[in-house]
Amino acid sequence: MARTRITNGVKISAKVEGVKNSSVPLKAVVFSEDLNEVKILAEKKLTTDNLDIVLDVEAAKMPDNLKISIVPDELKPKTQIRRLSESANASVASITKDTILSRKGVLKEEDISIKPVDSVLGLWQLKHKVCGRVFKTDPVTGEKCPVPGATVHVYDVDVNFFWWYPNPGLPWGWIFPFFPHRKEEIATVKTDECGYFCVNIPYFDIDAVLRWRLRYRCLWDILRRPTVLEAIDMGVKPDIRYYPELKALPEMKVKPRPQSWPQSEPVIKEMEYRNLKSVSTDNVETVSAGFMKALRTDVDTTSDLFTKSRFEAVRKTLFRKDALFEPVSKDSSSILDQSAFPRSIAPPSLPDDDLLLEMLGKQKKNIASTIAQIRSSSPLVRLLRCWPEIVPEWNLFLDVPDIVFKVEQDIDGDGVLETIYEEGYFDVNWNLGESTTDVQIEAWSNAICVPCGPAYKPCTKTGIVGLNDMAVDPIYFDAQGYVKGVNRPKQFVAFPLPHMVRPDAEAPLCKTIRVVGCPDYGNASYYKVFYKYQGGSETHFNERWHVYNISAGTSHYVKPDENGFYEVLTPANDYFPYHTLINWRTHNYSDGKYELRLELYDAAHNPIAAALDLVKVVIDNSQPAPVDFLKLEYREAGGAWSEAPLHCPIIKRTAGTDIELRVNYNVAATHLRDIYISFTGCSGSVGSDSYWHHTVGDNNKVLDWTVTVPSSVDEGGYRFYLEGRSRAFNATGGLASNWEFDTLSIWRGNSLHVVILDK
Question: Which residues are within 8 A (CB) of 286 and not within 5 positions of it... i.e. 6 or more apart?
Fold first, then answer.
């Protein structure tokens, strides 16, 4: 005979105004918190303003503190439930174990007061729109290729870590993450055909992150890996295992403290995260007067921290290798912008167990386990950018909130998603302060990407009709295959008139070119695209690439059969980018003039149409060369010119006197568009100049440029930067109505470093 289970659980009854008239389904959630652990004890959907809920836990076994919160029924993540309940307008009530015991496990309406649901619903409806793009960078051309149909997961993570800062006032610091960490998905969305996505995140979730960052002000920067330049600026040598050229750079001089941390001083603890709104910013990260006095005694000025002057170190070390500063361009970064510490560096000994115990709190049940985790975890080396702020030697951060991304894609067609991008606990790549954020997610090399193209248009002509976004039309292309309206010459005219028209350009195409065409979808089953190079013999393309199958939501691999035939993909409006015949990676081909033509075949590979029109196009993927400095001269104003060496030149000037620098340089390109030269340094930009080609044959220039360096600029390291730019372009994203504009796709830069010193 089965026994009837007797439940002595806690019973809760309450009145919640507004539930019955709510525009969204609601539920009551009873939960407890232990540090950053949220435990759901009960949930119940609500249909009336009367709440009755039973907890399957005896009163004597209840947690010391509970919360009962009214939230939208669709709200699932524990993190969001807790954060919504922490807001000022939340429909929430706190219940203590003592109250439950005093009421013998039965709480009635008079024991619990919950705000009406109107205010919390308004907060729930307030969303933070986050938009971005997933792309993959071509390692050869640098092109950003969109990743369509990928699943973007947005996670809310909470992290605990112990910060070990053994030398207060200096920028060295280590972070020891320890469990438990919490990671919950709060939104998911798929990227569209061009890799774009948008998600809505509840504002209270974003607000929690913003409040945490505001509370600690500059301390958020310790969670971001410093760059080489930032490390050098603080007098810290980057990891020479990765940057051996910086071996001679001096370390910051660390003076030993005259005495250890005063035992009379209390350990500075993390203030309770739950009381964020009541915390005064004046009291955040306070440091005792005794500690601050000791710190000032230990480190008087920042100049005392260095073994030699920063300028001397940079002049002797960094100026030896131009590559440190190259390239300075829109799509690339120099060594100075890379992570200073790709791998961690072992820290000094941690505080003893007694101090860690005091720091972490003796009341924590698993304190021994936490200390063991800290001692055994792999630390992350960090630098504090805003290091003039006084910070404690050791500190505990509990429940650090953040938003991170993970992206998945079915890359092998087996129906299972593989990870193509994932952020760690401390990765942040977007600005939470913006209402709509441009999140740029660069997928890993295993991601499948496809080019982006214009909106679908039905075919009106059989044959090759476009190259990327530009239509094949005599309006845009000349008889040789050059584009006429992009990067036109600028003729020198002493008195130019507003209505003057620039001469036609000879602008070639470059990088990846999508050959667009209509292969008579109703009759053709296969096609080939043939090409001739420089009038030579004809052959057909054998390129392979991916397109996006819109209806299936997956990529489709396009490749020719053993005889070089491509299958005509139908329906035409289901494969993106639309009407793609060939994805032509032109950088794998010789630069020069090409003739293209399309040939169509039936199911038996028999030709089915008369010869279609030829399309002529000129390709040029070459970078400008040379881009060289030929001569450097200098003089004080009105004096005679003196020549300086091109290798590590040091120019002496009379203090308080302007000087002039004259540089002679040579820039050439197969299709030169323009030249840019600038002089910058310790005092910022001193001057710049430029030259734009006058005619289509104006492709090799030897020029002089003179720049005046005012006496007011600081002595130190300066740099001439010279950039040659090609007029080749990619035929994407232009003004499809007339393609009359200037754009830049290929360039090459060079630098000449100069040291200016007072006599």
Answer: 268
CATH number reported for the structural domain that contains residue 737 in this entry: 2.60.40
Provide the residue type at 157 as one letter.
V
* Angle between helices 367-376 and 353-360 in degrees, nearest 10: 120
| 144 alpha carbon, distance to own chain's centre | 13
* Beta partners for residue 553, in sequence order: none
Task: Choose among 519, 514, 531, 526: nearest CA to 583.
Answer: 514
Residues paired with 177 in a beta bridge: 161
Q: Rounded to an integer, what is the distance from CA 28 to the centroid of its chain?
A: 39
pTM for the full model?
Answer: 0.76
Residue range 604-657, pLDDT digits in tens: 999 997 788 999 999 999 999 999 999 999 999 888 999 999 988 999 999 889
- Spatial distance between the Cα atoms of 117 and 120, rounded to a whole number of angstroms: 5
Residue span of the structural domain in which 540 resides:
463-468+509-619
Does the residue 61 lie in any domain?
yes
Q: Strand 650-653 vs strand 747-758: parallel, antiparallel, or unpaired? A: parallel
631 and 750 assigned to the same domain: yes
Q: How do residues 699-741 score in pLDDT, each as one tens digit?
A: 999 999 999 999 998 888 899 999 999 999 999 876 555 788 8
Q: Strand 418-422 and strand 394-409: pairing?
A: antiparallel
**E strand or H helix at 133, and its extent?**
strand 127-137
According to DSSP, residue 160 is labeled: E
